[in-house]
Amino acid sequence: MIICGVELSGSDAVVCLLNLDQGQFSLPECKVRKLTLKKNHTRADLQEFQASFAKLLSDYNVQKVAIKERMPKGKFAGGAISFKLEATIQLISEVDVEVTLLSPAQIKSTLAANPLPITFSETGLKVFQESAFVVAFAAHMAK
Known about the structure:
Blueprint: E1 2-9, E2 12-21, E3 24-26, E4 34-36, H1 43-59, E5 64-68, H2 80-90, E6 98-102, H3 104-113, H4 130-141
Parallel strand pairs: 1-5, 5-6
Antiparallel strand pairs: 1-2, 2-3, 2-4
């Protein structure tokens, strides 16, 4: 099963694909590392972002999307734009994909019970994709 891990940051959705097949993890080759919402944040911009994300899911046969949840208030509160991006991803109807949110506490407890099998530096991913990778791994382990 291919899971797309997502970290929302500002106007960006940083993504990482992680496949688990017969107990073996692999990182499918993916040209897309992040998708960005245009600055105006109009309805058309949101629809374009949604279409781009749906195309990514379709192109790589993703079965599940796991988004790192942002807190609505407090020190680590997410911005308004990131909540728009989250809703846009959750409402994708072009492809049949389950979308789940994982809180930082869920991710932390999952990693405590199931440590990463390799260090992040060994994955070959870009540094900014680490959080998305961890979310995808935690989503696989939380099943």
